[in-house]
Amino acid sequence: MMTNSEDTFDVIVVGSGGGLVGAYVAASRGLRTLVVEKTDLVGGTVAYSGAGLWFPGSAPLRRAGVEDDAENARTYLRDVVADGSRERLQDAYLRAGAELIDELERNPWFRSFVHGPVPDYYSWRPGGTPTGRTVFPPALPVAELGELFDLVRRSLPTERWGFDEGPVVSGGRALIGRALAAFLETGNGTLRLNTALDALVVEDGRVVGVEAVSDGERVRFRADRGVLLAAGGFERDRELRERYQQVPLTGEWSNGAPANTGDALRAGIAIGAATDLLDEAWFVPGLVQPDGLPVFHTGTRGGIWVNGAGERFVNETRPYDQAGHELVRLHATTGVRHIPCHWVFDQRQLDRDSIGGPPDQPLPEEWLKSGALKRADTLEELARLIDVPFEALDRTVEEFNGYAPTGTDEKFHRGETPWDRMFHHIVPFPADPRQNFTARSVPGFPNPLLLPIDTPPYYAATIVPSDIGTKGGLRIDEHARVLRPDGRPIAGLYATGNTAAPMSGRVYPGAGTPIGSSLAFGYLAVLDIVNAPD
To answer: Whole-prediction pTM value?
Structure first.
């Protein structure tokens, strides 16, 4: 039953992850803006993230002395994406990112973003750079948010295992906390939690509002100027994933927010919106934990991954999206099991880098008790435990060990790209210096990512394809307007983030592309709304 009352706003934003920044941009311009959030917390998948923003030519890069401009980045995108249909989206993105950072930094809540030295994922290609183009929000003392802190989604480790986050939050939680405070401080922002989008309201071909279910009651909200869909992807919806994805992943392995079940995608399709890349995701390797579910894993510092045939098949340290895609592609096309695969290493590797905790600490007992980590005194015994042919595993390990003295991975070239080399040494995470990437050198081995596997006992962990969200969604133009199959925009409807098909196509150009896209196209949507004739 629909309630009789109908609240009216200028702009409605569905979702409170990256869309929250777009909501702030609208509210700061005097537009009465409603944010509709399905859960009881704001932040979505962004709150789980490091909140990197791939914004070429932006002010934080200049402040850090990084020489970069939009033209170099345009050359890079044209080369790595190689899709002419997305060039206008790329141009809009490159313009919007730097402009948005300038605007946000004028508000004390956002202060100064900082550059993080994360190389472009194809840094050797034309226009690529080993210094990277990723910027991060500054860390945020919890006390500055006050009671608003309780509204921000916790980090994934806190949600999963109850870790104490301490008095300062960084990454996605810092970005969301700052955006929420700035949005509400405008005086033009309204937040409605526990309110799930059910349908878009259309009159005379124009989207004029949303229907939703709020605390079990059906409600309607009207938008006089526009509706921005920023509700994430459909990574947690089994039916949609099985319908569209090449390998029928069901969502349990996703690192996306649990409520991301494609509500906005379905609502757009229901009124005639075009879609694109629904078979895609921001795939990442997932390291299966003692609770049986994976966590986003990046930067393998040692050991090897082997498939069901006991053979190595990838540079295990390559950028996570590329490694995740390889798991999916090879499993679907080779007839050899790659899902799951096994991460094989030895005691020396464990002592140096640990697993499931900081280095130089004892192995947590639950890893072995749960079976998430298997241990054996010999490789032959380990092969039986993970059900791969011993002869193949032995041959694979012997070949890999032969690379250690020279430091050259002749098969997959681990440790040769700027991204790989980032894991050779300590690199502080810019928003939180307590975190770092490190692979300590060992005398006699020139490449710290290529230590031989020869010090028993031997171990095997499980790697599966996870993701940080699906990538395909509603087709948009350079103003973030949602398009019909014939290319005409649907009046009054906009989309951004993982609700929309990305400007980067099937490629992940650099750290911060997904969240950067969410913020940039949310910003472009608001600019179009503001400039549209009444």
So the answer is: 0.95
